Structure formats: structure tokens, C-alpha cells
Amino acid sequence: MELDLSTLKPAECYKVLANLITPRPIAWITTVSQEGAVNAAPFSFFNCFGSSPPIVAFAPGNKAPGIPKDTARNIRDNGDFVVNIADETLAHKMVATSASLPHGESELAIIGLTAAKSVSIKAPRIAEAPVSFECREWATLEIGSNRMVVGTVHHAHIRDGILDPQTLHLKTETFLPVGRMAAPNSYCRTSNQYEIKRPL
Asked: Of 39, 40, 78, 98, which has the fewest Cβ atoms less than 10 A away?
């Protein structure tokens, strides 16, 4: 099969990309509105892209053509956000926060999760998440109807026991994030990992 993506509809392009570029890490983004309402939503068009400075990027779509989701609106208004990472124990709650709610209603309150104060930014983190990165917006790029938020990471909250405090190496068995597979409902576990030695 060969596909010319320039001839496909946006929904068809999404199916090709979202089904085949997998597994994808999931950014469970928390933001806060100008009125103080906490918003939480997962985004699997996400990754880290550098370490000097440390940067991440994710792509929040629109609610409707030309109407940004609350996540993008809150970042535009306040300039910060938190990338939380969900493990297997939080997967169902993370997915539940993808439901559409009226503007100003908090997914965390409805689902029973805790908003914890951040150290360096206004947006709160999810206290139950094993890893949270406090980020400031560096730029938001709009390419066609796509929106990509690039952020610099300023503070990390990491559950004790996940990283070796001396070497910062991961203790693999202590951190089992979930990943995104084929759209619309497929996810993967990371409990079956293996090593391949890189050449010197």
C-alpha cells in the first residue's frame, strides 16, 4: 500500500499517523484558567525534544474549527502547564479526563484526583502521578489547523524510588507508564521491556 497524504482528508491523515506512529508517550496536561479552574487532559501527540534547555512539545487540537481546547486557551492566558505521566494504575482515570466538559469544570474534581501546588508555575500538578514536569510556554506554533505547544521544563516531581538519586538512572521496574497505540481506544503497557546493547 502507498498513500499520498496530500490527497487525503485530515481525518484520514490522522488515522494513518495515529495508527502507525506508535507507541507514543502520553502527556497528561494540567493547566489553570484565569478564573482558577483546573483542567486536565491527555495528549499523545507528545514527546521531549532536547535537554539544553530541556524542552517538550505536544499538540492540542481544537474543540471545533478555530476554537481551541481549554488546555490551549489556558496556556495562552497563563503561559504555563504541567506534563504529568500516568502509569498503569492511573490509566483509566487518565483516559476519563479526555471527556468533553463545559468550560470551567475540573476533570480532577469529578474523577477524584488531587491538584497539588507547583513550585515554579501557576498550573498545578496531579499529586497521584508518579512524574510531573512543570513547564513554561516557549512558543505555540500554528501550522494549518494544527497547534503545537513547545515548553521549557523548569521543575520535576518524581516519586521516590523511580530514579537512582546518585546516577539518575531509572529503576525500570518502578516506573510503568502507559503508551498510546492505534486510535481510538488502544493503549500499551511497558511492563515487558528488554535491552539491546548499543554499539560503542
From this structure: 98
14-34 exposure pattern, b = at least 16 Cβ within 10 A, e = fewer: eeeebeeebbbbbbbbbbbbe
**Phi, psi (rounded to 5 degrees) for 158:** -130, 125
127-173 per-position pLDDT tens digit: 999 999 999 999 999 998 899 999 999 999 999 999 999 999 999 99
Q: Is 127 left (phi over 0), alpha (psi -120 to 50) or beta?
A: alpha
- Please name the residue that has the C-alpha cell 507508564: 177
Q: In the chain, what is the greatest distance between 2 CA atoms, to the nearest angstrom?
A: 54
pTM over cut 0.85: yes
7, three cell numbers: 490527497
- What are the extents of the domains in the chain? 22-175
Residues 100-133: pLDDT tens digits?
Answer: 888 778 899 999 999 999 999 999 999 999 999 9
Provide the CA 27 distance to its chain's centre, in angstroms. Answer: 1
What's the CA gap between 140 and 125, in Å, rounded?
21
CATH fold for domain 22-175: Pnp Oxidase; Chain A (2.30.110)
Could you tell me where the DSSP H helices lie in the chain?
Answer: 10-20, 70-78, 91-96, 107-111
CA distances from 89 to 36, 69, 131 (A): 28, 26, 13
